[in-house]
UniProtKB/TrEMBL annotation:
This is Tetratricopeptide repeat protein. SUPFAM superfamilies: TPR-like (SSF48452). Residues 1-23, 90-137 are annotated as: Disordered. It comes from the Bacteria. The lineage of its organism: Bacteria, Bacillati, Actinomycetota, Actinomycetes, Kitasatosporales. InterPro entries: TPR-like_helical_dom_sf (IPR011990). Residues 1-12, 102-116 have a biased composition (Polar residues).
Length: 470
C-alpha cells in the first residue's frame, strides 16, 4: 500500500514529466533501472512509481532514487526536477531531516559509490565533485577508513571527546548525524565484504551511540533520531555477529534494539528488530520462535505502510514454517510475500531494506524449498537469485551461489554443484562470511562420495585450504 496518498493539495510534477519526454512511463522506468545499474544502485522503478512522481504524490524521492536521477540528469538538483526540499516533507522525510552533514545530500556509505569521495573527520565520506571513481578502489578506501580510523573517529565524534573520556552532557544534531553515518558505513562494508573482521571493530561506535542516549537533548526530534540510530546500529552490529556465527551475541544485540524501540515507541525499529530476531531464530534451530518473531514484526510493520517490508517479514515467517516442515503454511506465507512484493517500492520502505530486491526474494524462497527438501525448486530459485543480484551486494552473491551449490549437491547434480562451489570460493577472496564458509563445508561433505569426478575433485582440492584459512 502507498504511504502517501494523493490529495486535492498534491500538485503535478510538470518538471519531471518534461524530463520523461516522449517515453512512456514503462519505458522511462526501464531507463531509471538501467541508470541505477550503471552506478551500482538498486531501484525497482516501474510505471506506477513514475506516475506517482508525476502526479505529485511523491514529493521527494528517497536517497537511492535521488542518486539515480542525478546520474540521469547531470547538473540538475532535485528541486530542478520538480521535487520539494527534503526538509519540507513530513513523515519519513521529516525523520531524516538533518541526517546528512552540511554540504551532503546523504551518506556515501548509504550511496555505496560516491564520485570523488574522500574521508571525513568522522570516518564517513563527503561527496565531492570529481569524476568516475573505481568501485574496487572505493571499497578498499571504505574498508581501510573503517578498520583504522573509522571506529575511533566515530566514537570521538559521537561523544564529543577522545575515546575513553566521559560522555557528553548534551547531544545535538552532529551526534545524531554521526550515529546515522556509522550505521550506513557498517552496512555498506558488510554488503561488500561480509561480517568477519568487522564485528569486533563495530562494538566501539555502538557503545558510543548508547552513551549518547543519556545525554541531554534540547529537541525531541534529535532524541528520536538518537534512539532510532542507536537501535539500528545495535541491529547492524547484531547482524555482523549473526553472519559470523556468534549467535548469542547477535541475540543480545537484537534484544537491545527491541528494548530501545519499545522505549522510544518506534514501530519501524521494532519491526526491524523482530525481523532480524526471526532470521536468527531460524538459523539457530528455533523455528517456532522464528515464526512468532516474524508475526510480531508484521504486527508492528502494518503501521508503516510499506508493502516491501511486509513482503520480507512474510518471507521470514515462511522460513520458520519451512524449518517446522509445515509445507502448507510455508507456501501460504510465500504467496503472501510475492503478492506484497508485486505492489512495488514505496517511499515508506525503510532505508535499511536497500538489499531487498527480486534477488533476495528468490534467495529466501530458495532457502525455504531447501529446508523442505525440494532440491530442484530450491536450485531454480537460488540460480535466479544469483543472476538477478546487483554486483554491489558481493556478500549476497556469495551466499546465493553457496546456496545453489548445496541444493545441486543434494539434488543429485554433483558436477554442477562443484562448479557453483568453485564460483563461491572465488567470491570468498573478497567476502569474509562464516555463514557462507559453513554452507560450502556442508556441500563439500555431500560431494566427497563423488570425489572421482574431475570437477568435484577440483572443488574439494580448492575447498580444503580455503576452509583452513577461514
Amino acid at each position: 500500500m502507498a504511504s502517501h496518498r494523493a490529495s486535492s493539495s498534491a500538485r503535478p510534477n510538470t518538471a519531471f514529466r518534461e524530463l520523461r519526454g516522449q517515453r512512456s512511463p514503462g519505458e522511462f522506468a526501464a531507463a531509471v533501472r538501467r541508470a541505477g545499474r550503471e552506478i551500482s544502485e538498486h531501484v525497482s522503478c516501474d510505471a506506477r512509481y513514475v506516475g506517482r512522481v508525476e502526479s505529485g504524490e511523491i514529493r521527494c524521492p528517497n536517497y537511492a532514487y535521488e542518486r539515480v536521477f542525478r546520474h540521469m540528469f547531470p547538473g540538475l538538483e532535485p528541486v530542478d526536477m520538480g521535487f520539494a526540499p527534503r526538509e519540507t516533507v513530513r513523515g519519513r522525510g521529516a525523520r531524516k531531516k538533518g541526517s546528512a552533514l552540511p554540504g551532503q545530500t546523504e551518506s556515501p556509505a548509504e550511496s555505496r559509490t560516491s564520485p570523488g569521495a574522500s574521508p571525513g573527520a568522522d570516518g564517513a565520506f563527503a561527496r565531492g565533485s570529481g569524476s568516475n571513481f573505481d568501485s574496487n578502489k572505493e571499497s578498499d578506501v571504505l574498508r581501510r577508513a573503517f578498520m583504522t580510523s573509522g571506529t575511533a573517529a566515530m566514537a570521538a565524534a559521537s561523544l564529543g571527546a577522545a575515546p575513553g573520556t566521559p560522555g557528553p552532557r548534551r547531544a545535538g544534531e552532529p551526534e545524531a548525524c554521526a550515529v546515522e553515518q556509522a550505521v550506513r558505513q557498517i552496512r555498506v562494508l558488510d554488503d561488500r565484504h561480509g561480517a568477519d573482521g568487522l564485528y569486533r571493530r563495530a562494538g566501539r561506535p555502538l557503545k558510543a551511540a548508547y552513551a549518547l542516549l543519556d545525554a541531554q537533548t534540547r529537541r525531541r526530534s534529535v532524541a528520536d533520531r538518537l534512539h532510532a540510530g542507536a537501535g539500528e546500529l545495535a541491529i547492524s552490529v547484531g547482524w555482523l555477529a549473526h553472519d559470523s556465527g556468534r549467535f548469542p551475541d547477535a541475540r543480545s544485540h537484537y534484544a537491545e534494539a527491541l528494548a530501545t524501540a519499545r522505549v522510544a515507541g518506534d514501530a519501524a525499529l521494532e519491526a526491524h528488530a523482530f525481523c532480524n530476531t526471526a532470521f536468527l531464530a531460524r538459523d539457530a534451530g528455533r523455528p517456532r520462535e522464528a515464526v512468532r518473531a516474524a508475526q510480531a514484526a508484521q504486527r508492528a510493520g502494518r503501521r508503516l505502510g510499506s508493502a516491501r517490508l511486509m513482503s520480507l517479514l512474510a518471507l521470514r515467517e515462511a522460513g520458520g514454517w519451512a524449518r517446522l516442515e509445515d509445507r502448507a503454511a510455508c507456501e501460504e506465507a510465500l504467496l503472501r510475500a510475492r503478492t506484497l512484493f508485486g505492489r512495488g517500492p514505496d517511499d515508506a520502505d525503510p532505508e535499511w531494506m536497500t538489499f531487498f530486491g527480486e534477488a533476495e526474494l528468490e534467495g529466501l524462497e530458495a532457502q525455504c524449498w531447501s529446508a523442505l527438501g525440494d532440491w530442484r525448486r530450491a536450485a531454480e530459485h537460488a540460480e535466479r537469485a544469483v543472476d538477478l543480484q546487483d554486483p554491489h551486494f558481493a556478500r549476497n552473491i556469495a551466499l546465493y551461489t553457496a546456496q545453489l551449490a548445496g541444493d545441486l549437491a543434494r539434488g543429485g547434480a554433483p558436477d554442477e554443484a562443484a562448479a557453483a562451489g568453485c564460483r563461491a570460493l572465488d567470491l570468498l577472496e573478497e567476502v569474509r562470511s562464516s555463514r557462507v564458509r559453513t554452507m560450502l563445508t556442508a556441500t563439500a561433505r555431500q560431494l566427497r562420495r563423488h570425489a572421482a569426478e574431475p570437477v568435484v575433485a577440483g572443488f574439494l582440492a580448492r575447498h580444503r585450504p580455503a576452509a583452513q584459512a577461514g
